[in-house]
Specification:
Length: about 110
């Protein structure tokens, strides 16, 4: 599988490393809404942190598999037209961290799915 990506910092670079370790071969770097700097702690959380994504329904199976391979529980935020709202959410996530929480995982789940 070829994975086209944007960026290569802690977030995208961390995801690319996770996908490579999951057997997807050399992976370019990617943007993602999660703090992949915490990737080594994923197993300690007791449940998978969430990851928001949006895109074409035809891509859902592959996108969600890549999310799970990287250690996240995918949360579909609708069609690609919602990308700006998903990207804007990173501002809120950064502000929560700056307000005193520090690095953290977030989890979105239906009641009873914890």
């Amino acid at each position: 599988m070829k994975i086209a990506t944007i960026g290569k910092g802690k977030v995208g670079g961390g995801l690319a490393d996770l996908w490579e370790r999951a057997g997807h071969g050399p992976t370019a770097k990617s943007f993602n809404l999660n703090f992949v700097a915490l990737q080594d702690q994923l197993g300690k959380t007791g449940s998978r942190p969430s990851n928001l994504w949006c895109g074409d329904e035809e891509a859902r199976e592959v996108v969600e598999r890549l999310n799970r391979d990287a250690g996240y529980e995918p949360v579909c935020a609708g069609p690609l037209e919602n990308a700006a709202q998903v990207e804007a959410a990173i501002g809120l996530i950064f502000e929560i961290g700056k307000a005193g929480t520090g690095q953290f995982f977030y989890r979105m789940a239906a009641p009873g799915d914890f």
